[in-house]
Amino acid sequence: MRIEESDIPALARGCAVLGTGGGGDVRTGALAAARAVREHGPVPLVGLPDLDDDTLIVPLSGIGAPTVSHEMIHGEDEPRRIAAEVERLFGRPPGAVMSSEIGGSNGVAPVAWAAALGLPLLDADGMGRAFPEVQMVSMYVAGLPADLVVMSDVAGNVVTIRPVDGLWSERLARAVCVASGSSALMADYVLTAASARGAVVEGTVGRALAIGRATAGASDPLEALRQELGAVRLVTGKLTDVERRTTGGFVRGTATIEGTGADRGRTLTLELQNENLVATEDGAPLAMVPDLITVVDTETAAAIQTEGLRYGQRVTVLAWPCDPLWRTGKGLETAGPRAFGYDLEYTPVEELAEARRHG
Amino acid sequence: MRIEESDIPALARGCAVLGTGGGGDVRTGALAAARAVREHGPVPLVGLPDLDDDTLIVPLSGIGAPTVSHEMIHGEDEPRRIAAEVERLFGRPPGAVMSSEIGGSNGVAPVAWAAALGLPLLDADGMGRAFPEVQMVSMYVAGLPADLVVMSDVAGNVVTIRPVDGLWSERLARAVCVASGSSALMADYVLTAASARGAVVEGTVGRALAIGRATAGASDPLEALRQELGAVRLVTGKLTDVERRTTGGFVRGTATIEGTGADRGRTLTLELQNENLVATEDGAPLAMVPDLITVVDTETAAAIQTEGLRYGQRVTVLAWPCDPLWRTGKGLETAGPRAFGYDLEYTPVEELAEARRHG
């Protein structure tokens, strides 16, 4: 299939849902994608099996300081400079663009970057959701060496990092990003199609499109979305308290939702660090990272990003299982609750739900 | 000729003189150089005319934050990783090492780096002295594009920067350096022998050796040094006041020298910013950057670096002309008094001396 301009709104809605509150404002990525598709034409969406083993895949994401997700629109020069550097380093041009992070703006914007480069977009990403740090990608969890980062900024600088590991990758990329004015486009883990197998989360662009389309025209958008996601409804209610501190672009805080209707008397607390990371009720967790937790408007089922949470909103909190990769030992070590400072043993969202049903 | 272990002390003394107070403690570079020569053998010193036009020259310097000069000893891995990256980028290995900065530790340490790489050292550098900022090099003044920086740190990371200009080069290299723990080895302006002609300060390693040797066994070391440098003696006296503030590794301050003997009654003030930048008497300048101003021990003629200035020292201040490159419009714009924040019209040290003789 090809991604047409008319597909962008659905893709953006789906990426917002998969952003679990973070990943940057999808409207920014959607704007860039629509403009680029209008200018360069539709972008072919290809699967890994469609690519020759040695096809180079360039995972791209906007990086801001201090978080990966950054909604600044990058022009066409940044992806072109990165593609040129990749060609210089590998002796052949890239054959496909991949989103590093399907959640939020970085899930939609790669359509613009692929269009600008005249390349197909791979139906995959490196997270299956949104995460705030560079090393929180499937390629790292799969054990691929974090041995190359190529960055470019609005000024035109190109920086190539050969880090000794993922943590140095994060540290150096962040420093370059800050020096570049806190915004850069980044290619992390340039892959061959062969090395990408088992190291990326496949099908997530298609999934975002399906999620975005599930609610369109549905008589019960919320239920349509819940079914599409295979999600547990944690609570439906009213946002009664939002505590948010923005420290250097990083949002931390909590949101409190008091149940209404059938949920009257229940109180759910969301722990936020850009993304929604832990949902608790009476001190017991209902869902936790790396499982996905998204706050949606109860009526429209549109995802509400962390920055958009407001007192009084009528919301429903949905939670559903992450990609199995994140549930491995290395996956949980990289992006489990303890990686974010929560003293919680990871328990899958479906087990927590099952326990409540029988509890 | 070849640089033997027995040459290192003279080279270090000369580099201290050319460091005009800055450039990092030469003892650190001397230690590394002596050790490497002992292990790998003497280092051939070659001139530009000895090299084929397409021979790659790698200018190396230790970079600290916030100044270029950094006296941390880099092991053998950093130059090897940089050489490997240069070979990868250019398709052929480097053929010679050059000191980016002959003044201070960075003038001596390249002997160690050349020895570790089994390469000759080019008898040239990028300053003919010491300067604190990345863009204050002859290659920049000569108009060579600042289009490539290769850095490596103790951890083993390699970062390649393709900056759009010299100021971005400085900004990004500095950021990477800070993230690397404030110390890295850097190759700036990888040159071919052809492009180096007219863009480097030739003969400065030989000059440092000659300066270091001039005082050895001399009955009047101070006069021997003055003659070797072609320097003006600004004052001989006693250090009566040293004001120094170290802000993030950058030393700023003033030193006051009260004349003794024939200079009794005179007071000379030195403005310091890592290097000795301006010498004034009764508010009138006697010498100013980019001309070289060095404080030496009156008895031994050993250079005293800025960090070593102490109340009561018996010192003589010498000043002599910089390389003609620094007296061009671009040279003065890059490293003249105004580039350091002094509201002074640059006047060559020999003209100021001539005017005093007739004034």
Automatic annotation (TrEMBL), chains A, B:
Domain S-Me-THD-like C-terminal: 166-349
Source taxonomy: Bacteria, Bacillati, Actinomycetota, Actinomycetes, Streptosporangiales
S-Me-THD N-terminal domain ranges (all copies): 7-161
Entry superkingdom: Bacteria
Protein's UniProt name: DUF917 domain-containing protein
Record-linked InterPro entries: S-Me-THD-like_C, S-Me-THD_C_sf, S-Me-THD_N, S-Me-THD_N_sf
Organism annotation: Nonomuraea pusilla
